[in-house]
Amino acid sequence: MQGNVAGGRGRPQDKFELRAWFFMRISGVILAVLAIGHLFIMHVFNSIENIDYQFVVERWKTPFWRTYDFVMLVLAMMHGTNGIRVLIGDYVRSPGKKLFALSSLYTLSFIILALGAIILFTFKAVG
Amino acid sequence: MYKGGTGQWAYFLHRLSGAAIFLYLLIHIVDTALLGWGPKYFNYMMQLYTHPLFKLGEIGLFAAVLFHALNGLRICIFDFWVGATRYHSQIFWGAMVLFSVIFLPVFYIMIQRVHF
After folding, report:
1. CA-based nearest distance B83→chain A, Å
2. Best interface-test mutation with A: which of B35, B40, B56 has the largest number of A CBs within 10 A?
3. Looking at the domain assignment, is residue B57 inside a domain?
4. pLDDT band for position A1 (50/70/90)?
5. pLDDT tens digits, A97-123
6. What angle do CA B67, B25, B12 make, to 5 degrees?
7. Rounded distance, CA B30 to CA B19, Å?
8. Are B69 and A31 in contact (CB under 8 A)?
9. Cβ contacts (< 8 Å) between B80 and chain A: which residues?
10. What distance in Å separates the CA atoms of residue A106 and residue B47, rounded to the nearest whole number?
11. How high is the pLDDT of residue B82?
């Protein structure tokens, strides 16, 4: 695969890899906005000093922030999982280890994504 | 395959920051999921995050995400605009200047919350 001068992976030939390549770029641009926005809001304008249960209760009262967090959750998990898949493809040579690494990755990613989505959709304030 | 120099460093740092962010993301989703069990566990977890080592890690996280985002956007420029190769070094240093302009004030704000 031909890399480019920027150190990015060149556009692949394979159909699946080409789709994954486009996905990484499109989700990456969206995540650059969503994740950096999230960091500014939660880690710069607010901080761990004032973020607690009640803070999230107020935040998730608005469908806007639940949607924001949901889009970010799905895109970040898919972008990250595909990124690690590429790293495993590049650095794990043995087919047995590769199969193990990929199946562990997909299982873990699925569980964590499902956990995050369930909490986002079912969360109701108590107390 | 690579022209060496800045591109190669950016390539390595992109993979390293990406893997680190993904690892943090997994932990972060689990700690957020504690919300489902009421205030007790979530607030306890947030209390743990006030430790100065976590606060330093938080600054590192900001730097990693910002670098990964800006470098990723830089890669997209070269992927979708063939003529960009001529401005390779300007675009690289432009991204690094943008990184500094955003990161320095953020660092200044965040470092003041770290008390050992």
Report:
1. 12
2. B35
3. yes
4. very low
5. 999 999 999 999 999 999 999 999 999
6. 35
7. 17
8. yes
9. 25
10. 31
11. 85
pLDDT at A6 over 80: no
* Dihedral sign from CA coordinates of A107, A80, A125, B34: positive
B43 found inside a domain: yes
CB B21 within 8 A of CB B61: yes
The CATH number assigned to the domain holding B84 equals 1.20.1300
Local structure of residue B36 (DSSP, 8 states): G
With beta carbons under 8 A apart, name residues in chain A contacting B110.
43-44, 47
Of B22, B73, B77, the CB nearest to A84: B22
Query: How many domains is chain B partitioned into structurally?
Result: 1
Residue B1 lies in a domain: no
Contacts of A62 (CB under 8 A, 6+ apart): none
Question: What amino acid is encoded at B63 in this protein?
Answer: A
| B35–A53 CB contact, under 8 Å | yes
Tokens for A52, please give them. 């607690």
Residue B51 tokens, joined: 């430790």
Domains along the sequence of chain A with CATH: 15-122 (1.20.1300.10)
Identify the residue whose tokens are 């569980």. A111
Indicate yes or no: CB of A7 within 8 angstroms of CB of B85: no
Q: Does residue B116 lie within any of the structural domains?
A: no
Task: Decide if A31 contacts A79 (C-beta within 8 A).
Answer: yes
Residue ranges in chain A assigned as alpha helix (H): 15-39, 53-59, 63-91, 95-122
Q: In A, which residues are within 8 Å of B17 by CB distance? A: none
